[in-house]
Amino acid sequence: MPRADMWAGSGFLALGAATAVESWRMPRFEQLDVNPWSVPGLVPGLIGLVLLFLGGLLVLRAVREGALRAEAGMAEELGFDAERRRRTLLALLLTVGYAVGLVGRLPFRTATFLFVLLFIALFRIERGMPVGQIARELVYAALEALLVALAVGFVFERLFYVRLP
């Protein structure tokens, strides 16, 4: 999938560059004598630099694997079959539903728990699975969702000092 990797890497390069530039433009509060390690743009800037670096590596690897050859067709290598389109659309709908429909309407940890639970359950449980296996998958999904919701809430509130909705 070299051509697809090249396009994805290019997207990550653009996103990383935009994130790094915008985080640099955020206020630094020098006039308030704020600790430089606590300025608002630090974490987004670091994430932008990581995206920039990893996007560059992805593009380089794709070019090395022949992404620029004329015969490297993207549609065939991506395998845009109906199942892949359905799963991509489902992931997009769940993510938008979480951001627009749950966050801000429910406590953050509850919204995150429901999102992760639904995401895992919908992508791991398949038609025709035995009931026992479905039950195990749901227990696994609930435990992972609980851990993620608690950990993300803790990190944002206690480490980044972000008030969550």
In short:
The chain has 6 helices and no strands. Helix 1 runs antiparallel to helix 2 (42-64), helix 4 packs antiparallel against helix 5 and helix 5 runs antiparallel to helix 6. The chain is mostly helical and 165 residues long.
Tell me about this structure.
This protein is an all-alpha fold and 165 residues long. The protein has two domains: 1-79; 81-165, no CATH class. Helix content is 72%, strand content 0%. The protein contains six helices and no strands. The protein has helices at 2-24, 42-64, 74-78, 82-102, 108-124, 131-159. Helix 4 (82-102) runs antiparallel to helix 5. The protein is flat and about 60 Å long. The two termini are 40 Å apart.
Helices and strands, with pairings:
Layout: H1 2-24, H2 42-64, H3 74-78, H4 82-102, H5 108-124, H6 131-159
State the share of residues found in helices, binned by percent: over 70%
The quaternary organization reads as single chain
- Uncertain runs are none
Gyration radius, in Å:
20 Å
Number of helices: 6
DSSP summary, beta strand count = 0
Gap between N and C termini: 40 Å
Quote the beta fraction.
under 5%
| Major sheet attributes | none
Please write the string of helix (H) and strand (E) elements.
Answer: HHHHHH
Q: Mean pLDDT, nearest integer?
A: 88
Number of domains: 2
Structural class: mainly alpha
> Based on CA inertia axes, which overall geometry fits?
flat
How would you describe this structure in keywords?
165 residues; flat; 6 helices
